[in-house]
Amino acid sequence: MLSRRAILSAAATTTAGLMAAKASVAPNTEWEKIAAHYDVSRDFIQLENGNFGTMARPVFAAYHAHLERINREGSFYARRKAGPDLVAVRAKAAAALGVSSDEILLTRGATEALQVLIAGYDRLKRDDAILVADLDYDSTQAAFHGLEQRRGVKLIAIALPEPATHQGLIDAYEAALKENPAIKLMLVTHVSHRTGLVLPVKEIVAMARTRGVDTIVDAAHSWGQLDFTLPDLGADFVGFTCHKWIGAPLGTGIAYIRKDRQEAIAPALEHIGSGIDERLHTGTTNFAAVLAVSEALDFHNRIGAAAKEARLRGLRNRWAEALRGHRGLEILTPSDPRLTCGITSFRLTGKTSPAENRAVAAELLTRFNIFTVDRPGVAKGACVRVTPSFFTHEAEIDALIGALKAMA
Ligand SMILES: Cc1ncc(COP(=O)(O)O)c(C=O)c1O
After folding, report:
1. Which of 112, 241, 256 to mutate to test the pocket of ligand 1 (most atoms within 8 A of CB)?
2. Are residues 315 and 401 located together in one domain of the fold?
3. How far is the CA of 105 from the centre of ligand 1 (A)?
4. Which atom of ligand 1 is nearest the CA belonging to 51?
5. What mean pLDDT, rounded, does the chain reach?
6. Domain range enclosing 351
7. For 266-305, what is each residue's pLDDT tens digit?
8. What is the pLDDT confidence band of residue 26, given thresholds at 50, 70 and 90?
9. pLDDT digits over 365-374, tens only?
């Protein structure tokens, strides 16, 4: 059996080759080298990488090594070593996000992070209103519904424009706030899990702030897919996951609360921890998963966020822009690079029900061996989501183009 040190140093060596790929747009040959760092099934074409991100081999090896060590040392690890190790991971994650450690909490994913922010938000008074949009994630919308029931506030839901434009999206939120001056809190999703639409979060958050409205940002799909840090968004409350585009083990995420806004989120368990730590208590956690966030960030940094964003957008453009305007096919996100990245959904013209889109995704799998997922919940109708990843070959995207032409 390899020692932990041997595995971690092997992981470092295998990723060293990635340094060469660190450029804003790494050429294809470099991306083929990066793809080779992922141990993924090629029995089918995997274009549903929005659910969670497969760990690259060096991250998986490090996770495995952490797990072995922690299982061997048991409570000795938990009681003597976990504390400083978790502090170090937290500092590294905070630095990657461009904020300080006492502004973030390590969570078990974006769902938990956003629950902390939404359920804990305590600036609402009876008869205030709160705002969600159709493209927001189901469980975050449900958490806003919970506020309506528990706090006596009114929930307002808008449909985002389709087709969308950069200004049209800002205007849609501004119009909702103008029409409903009682709105005091809103949810904005940086990258929609339904269509892949990228929202101009910075502009929307700033516009809302001038109207005295707070925004909780769902950044589950943006960190690791788009090149940004928290100061770029200007947001006060943000939920992240590390197990999608950062490529860390399942069960890892982050909640951000800007230092001067921490009193707006009520403590979950008072007197356990202090400051931001009072806002969430996860109990005994999966230490190995959290530790491997560190190696996931190393892998992410070696490729570089800008190169990752460019690659994903390139794979997306390869099919979505090639097929835009094709008879019988609707591409749901616009060509504007500010509004898209790797994820994009399509609809076969006229097929708007969830059942029809489930059938389209099923046909893509049974007839063409291409795995995608149907997404209901879009105001203008359900759709099918296509999500490439860092190990996706261009030939796989070309197979999708052929399949969609045949089906349209
Ligand atoms: C937009 C969005 N928000 C939140 C989540 C929840 O993320 P997690 O799996 O980290 O709880 C997801 C997961 O798919 C998502 O797509």
Report:
1. 241
2. yes
3. 16
4. 14
5. 93
6. 306-407
7. 998 776 777 898 899 888 999 999 999 999 999 999 999 9
8. low
9. 999 999 999 9
Residue 184 tokens, joined: 């005091």
The mean pLDDT value for 307-322 works out to 98
**Residue at which a domain ends, from 274, 299, 324:** 299
Question: Domain end: 239, 264, 299, which one?
Answer: 299
**Which of ligand 1's atoms lies nearest the C-alpha of 189?**
1
What pLDDT is stored for residue 282 in this prediction?
Answer: 87
On whether residue 18 sits in a domain, the answer given is no
What CATH number is attached to the domain comprising 100? 3.40.640.10
DSSP state of 386: E
Q: Is 282 in the same domain as 382?
A: no
Q: How far apart are CA 398 and CA 391, in angstroms?
A: 15
Domain count of the chain?
2
Residue of the nearest CA to atom 14 in ligand 1? 51
Question: In ligand 1, which atom is closest to the CA atom of 136?
Answer: 1
Q: What is the pLDDT of residue 2?
A: 38
pLDDT at residue 336 greater than cutoff 70 = yes
284 and 217 assigned to the same domain: yes
Q: Kindly state whether residue 63 falls inside one of the protein's structural domains.
A: no
Q: Are 339 and 197 in contact (CB under 8 A)?
A: yes
Judge whether 354 and 382 are in contact, CB under 8 Å.
yes
pLDDT category at 108 given cuts 50, 70, 90 is very high
Burial class (CB in 10 A: 0-12, 13-18, 19+), 212: exposed
Same domain, residue pair 321 and 231: no
What does the alpha-carbon distance between residue 237 and residue 232 come to, in Å, rounded to a whole number?
13
Please list every protein residue whose CB sits less than 6 Å from any atom of ligand 1: 109-111, 137, 140, 189, 193, 218, 220-221, 241, 253
Residues 314 and 225 in one domain: no
Query: Which atom number of ligand 1 is nearest to the Cα of residue 112?
Result: 11
Question: What was the pLDDT predicted at 232?
Answer: 96
Ligand 1 centre and the CA of 185: distance in Å?
20
